[in-house]
Amino acid sequence: MTRRLAAVPDAPPRAVLYLRQSSYREESISLELQETAGRDYCARQGYQVVAVLADPGISGRTWRRPAVQRAMAMLEEHEADVVVLWRWSRLSRSRKDWALAADRADVAGGRIESATEPNDVTAAGRFARGVMTELAAFESERIGEQWKEVQASRVARGMPPGGKLPWGWRWSAAGPAEVDGDKGEVIAELYTRYLAGAGGRSLAAWLNEIGQKPMHRETWNDRVVIQILTSPVHAGLVSYRGQTYPGAHDGVVDEATYQAFLRERARRAAGRDGKRRYLLSGIAHCAACGSPMTGFTITHHPRSRAPWSAYRCTSLGKGPHSGKGPWSLTLHVVEAAVVEWLRSIAHDVEGAARAVAEAADAGATRRLEAQRLAREVASLDAQLTRLTEQLAADVVPISAYAAARDSILRKRAALAERLDEAEQIAAVTGAEEPSQAASSLLAEWGTLGVDEARSVLRQLIARVDVDCAAKSARVVPLWSN
Hints:
Residues 370-425 form a coiled coil. By secondary structure, this protein is α/β, with parallel strands linked by helices. It folds into 3 domains: 14-141, Resolvase, N-terminal catalytic domain (Rossmann fold, 3-Layer(aba) Sandwich), CATH 3.40.50; 169-272, Hect, E3 ligase catalytic domain fold (Alpha-Beta Complex), CATH 3.90.1750.20; 275-481, no CATH class. It has helices at residues 31-45, 66-76, 95-108, 123-156, 183-195, 200-209, 222-229, 255-272, 331-347, 349-392, 398-427, 434-443, 450-457; strands spanning 14-21, 48-56, 82-85, 111-114, 169-171, 177-179, 237-240, 243-246, 284-286, 293-298, 308-313, 328-330, 461-467, 472-477. Helix 3 (95-108) crosses helix 10 and helix 6 (200-209) crosses helix 7 (222-229).
């Protein structure tokens, strides 16, 4: 019997090795071991290794890893034909990310293979891969739960949730953190100098002059200095999930000094922003076309030596809308209309309260509608994930998958748009006491910062319709929107 010989391809399949060293100590397999296993596998399969990409010490629970994104891009850009992993869990520990990665590989005409686990396309092989990816997701959830318990336990005992301490600190034999030598005095002096007006560069220069050495660097720079001062450990506090808690250690500065540093840092950051901020940007809308308006300033206006500020439509006056009527209105006219409306609300206590009460029932209905839409969007996401898993398991052909996927994505886009509108409406059902809010805002008008004033206005105003042609503005309250 004559055997038929398979055609030999002109070039061997191109493989990119993707390596990830787990951030979890129990599963931290060296990158060298993974690369050796991957190269041996490629040699057996006749693959040409064209790249080795690694994400060292990054959790598999996140898909925001530069090397894995580059590996998938190489498949999509036809720079590689196959991504080779040490184990399936190296790619991701997320069920959703795994399904989407398989979809991207299939659509690109590539594939993902494991150097140490089954790759065959039989039913048994697909089942084994499914079990292993599910096991990876289970292990991720287990590790996450354990780590949360450890962090919560450490914070409850007044210790930082992680094992790292900022510069100037070390772990004591008794457990709590302690100051490393005389560095506490140096840190306290840094806060004093910063609050006196010194910047990051001058502080870094001072540290270099007195011979203090940073961690993992030869010299100090402004970024590292400010990053160190931001740690609440110096004030005897520990940080966990955006909140600070009392620590078991004594700080080198008091909490008032630390809070003063945070305020001063925020003030300087705002001062470095070269853009002028406008109270009604995004709240003001063009009455002619409905587009949002933004503020702008002309430093040298031909009619006035003083700067001239206004709100302008983002659509009229440019592109195809150019020449279709006025597209800006001076700032004081628009904001004066808002002030006048606030005065009317501040004096009409009964009318404003009645309007809000009437909107409360409608607001409850809108919140229920938002919840219903959110469940529908989540259901479509689940359908898309199952569909992608079926494609990866060769249950559905690519043509059927593409048609079903596009249908689901269209439905999801429509629902997501409705959900966004419903959530915005539900979130802005009006302030409980609009008259009091209006009175308070008027009392501090001109002294509040832009963010504070906008936060109050957002509780009262849906938008401000600006008629540039008539040179007027009309406030639309939330409860009439």
